[in-house]
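Escalated from tier 1: manganese (II) ion holo job.
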Amino acid sequence: MKPLIGVTCKYSYDGTFAVEHNMGIVGQQWHYLPHDYIHAIEMAGGIPVILPIYDDIQNAIELCKSLDGVVFTGGNDVNPVFYGEFPMDNIGIITPGRDLQEIELIKYILSETEKPLLGICRGTQILNVALGGTLCQDLVEKNFNNHSIVKVPGIYASHEIIIEEKSKLFNIMQNKKSIVNSFHHQAVDKLGAGLVVTARASDGIIEAMEYLERDAYTLGVQWHPECMVDRYKDHLNIFKSFIDSIEK
Ligand code: MN
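Tier 2 regenerated the structure:
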């Protein structure tokens, strides 16, 4: 069997988006996910499985035992309470149930397994928070460039990154520079324990980090490579190397 890859999903606890599109009932909770993640993992040779937010977090841990790897996907802002800060004015919508489950799942995967872990956008941010790191709550408010570049379609790049030569990401992308899309208003600030920065944007914002405390593939990227896999081979390689790291 091909590797079975868990994919975390977005979550709405009030169903607003569904009601707006004539689906569901006011107050219902919904799970949802862009297809790009499914496409990228299938293209790289894996079988994706969407992981819901369970009522019982232990069910997520139990299911994870049957998976070969997990991709932590993009989504809402992480609750600043998990890194000891008050929320700033420009914080986005918070999904506390998702935060709690993902923090527990990351801790389990890193401490108890050799399963590969890939964090994408929010997935990178929550990986950092799970390891005790902090986030910049709003880049524009902190006078950084606007990394929420929504006027360039996500299938194309919108800014450059500079990659550390001695890193997994350099081995994957085979270049000291690459170009990435950018749909984030937050970023990793202080690094969590065991993490190192392996790519930055020209304004210094952290665009990739890796975890060095275990051998298994553990990479976080701030951009959305899943949207770029049809046009950029180096971005497809992020998923291929993730799948190829699984011993079958
Ligand atoms: Mn960016």
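The longest helix spans residues 96-112.
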